[in-house]
Predict the 3D structure of the following.
Amino acid sequence: MSHFFQKPENALKRANELLNTPNADAGVVKRQKRNALEILHEALIAKKNRTWQPTHEVLMVTYLNITIDLQLGRIAKDGLHQYRNLVLAQNPASLEKVLLFFVSESEKRVAEARKHSTELSILASVDLESSQSPEAVMMSTTTAEDSADRTDRALVLPWLRFMWETYRTVLDILRCNTKLEGLYKQVALSAFAFCRTYVRKIEFRRLCEILRTHLYTMQRHEATPTTQSIRQMRGWEGWSAESVELHLTIRFDQLDAATHLELFTEGFRTVDDIHAIMQFWATPPKAAIMATFYKNLAHIFYVSKNNLLHAFALFKYYTLLQREGTVLPDPEQRQLASAVVLASLSIPIRNHHSILLENAETAAGLLEEKDEHMAALLGYQLALVRMEQQRAQFLASLATDLDDEEEEDVTMAWEPCAMCHLADNEATLCFIGFVHLSGLNVPPVDAIKKTPWEDMRKEVPLTMQCCGHCVHRGCWDSYFATQFQKVIT
């Protein structure tokens, strides 16, 4: 390539001439674009003219436009890294502007391609990082796919691959740089939205790993800086309050996306990430952010059937809304309070599930260790047994907000089986929760099996307190009689 085109203004002029060739067919236009891209790339990597000037920004926008047209993600990545080395120390705002253009323009192209797609779920299981072999191409021509399916694969899938590569490239360039953290957050949230919109579960897991690697790099540098890390992290100014809040916002949206995509294992790992980030912040996050956090956690714990932590997360969500002063409509207020009560009543006796395993003692220890770890991540440092003992205290405080129908269910006229229906038919959990809340000393299930029903019935007090309302034993008899065998089998 001629040294004449190493000057950015000369390279840009020649590239525009090639791009504006009149009356050219598609093959010629594609070839001209590649020639223009080569000229612009030579200008970017030239050892001379390393002082940034506004022409470089125009050159880079033209360069990225061509790579988007031709879907050349790797060449775009190489050019962006070259531009980053050129501009980061002199004008980081220009790098931010160029990266924002690259992401927004790519998103527009994907949105246009999506208009031609009839069913995105067909592509949901396709790995965007896997290359298509010649054998797969030949098989696709002989299968019974209709024209709409082939349109999805031929038109939409390449743009999804390019968009995913775009997010990876931009996040890699922006990582560990305090001045560019705002754009880093914006791109990360856009990537989560991409995974939600196009149901990209595989890519979401990889995105979480990418962000987790960035976090681990910053943690390791903060703890034990080395000569290499100091050189690589010279753009990182440490954990400030703004930086911690920014990374927490990213992880809260990550948790929301994990819940939306029903990737609950990834949701649990995200909770670990959030806890790690909070260690760098002395003051707690805003109540509104934490309320959303606990709302998503409650859903995750409900699906995983961890009733104890589900109840605690719901209670934290309720109290944070109250502390923030959020005014909910009366029906929603009563429904939320009722949900907290029902979730609390559904908490089983400790180690209830462990007795079903061969090694009950080991299983009980593992379950308790897991629960205590998750409770610590949720900010509850006391033993979970204490949390169960404190349950009645906040149940009483919620009694005034109970739904009218729910309040009737805990009065003398209450039919206990109705509560089971409201608790998603978790009859066993309701039985254990009610008895445990009543303060009864319930023996282990293996001991219950050896105890006649009439002897167990004698242990039930004449009246029991539930949310401040008396429930007579007669109202419990039919419930116990129908549910007792379900508990011990």
About this structure: The chain has a mean pLDDT of 72. The beta strands are 463-466, 469-472. The first helix runs from residue 8 to 19. Residues 1-117+148-174 form one domain.
